[in-house]
Amino acid sequence: MESVFLVVLQKWGPAAVSVLLIFVVSFLIREIKKYSDAEKNHIAGLHKDISKMREDVNNSLNSFGERLSKVEHDYVKNDMFYRELSGWRSEINKLSDQINSNHTMLIQNILQFVRKGEL
């Protein structure tokens, strides 16, 4: 079985086959360029999408950082508030204990005076 290329070469001659090969090769080159351009456009679109995604991630990170700093600030503020409040509570408890002990001593003194008959 003979090759198709050899049959065409024998029937039409080398010049016709060369012209046919030139047309086939030029067609293939045009198709390759078309696909190449389509791939370049696709890659450019992917670059745009990636840069948009990076921008979105950066915006999300900045927003998260701001929220985190607010939470830290509020936590520190609340922590300091509770620390200060606990200090006041302890002072109030100490004063309350002092008042109670003073009242107890006063009542005991009054009762002693009553027992002695001085009042």
Describe this structure in words.
The protein is an all-alpha fold. Helices cover 94% and strands 0% of the residues. It is built from two helices and no strands. The longest helix has 103 residues, at 14-116. The protein is rod-shaped and about 150 Å long. The N and C termini lie far apart (144 Å).
Tally of individual helices: 2
Q: Are there runs of 5+ residues with pLDDT below 50, and where?
A: none
Q: What is the radius of gyration? A: 48 Å
The count of domains is 1
Strand content: under 5%
Largest sheet data: none
H and E order: HH
Shape: rod-shaped
Q: For the residues shown, what is the average pLDDT?
A: 81
Structural class: mainly alpha
**What is the end-to-end distance?**
144 Å
Give helix % range.
over 70%
- List how many beta strands DSSP finds: 0
Q: Concise description?
A:
The chain is mainly alpha-helical and 119 residues long. The chain contains two helices and no strands.
Keywords:
single chain; 119 residues; mainly alpha; 2 helices; rod-shaped
List the topology elements.
Layout (H helix, E strand, L loop, with lengths): L3 H9 L1 H103 L3
Helix pairs in contact: 1-2
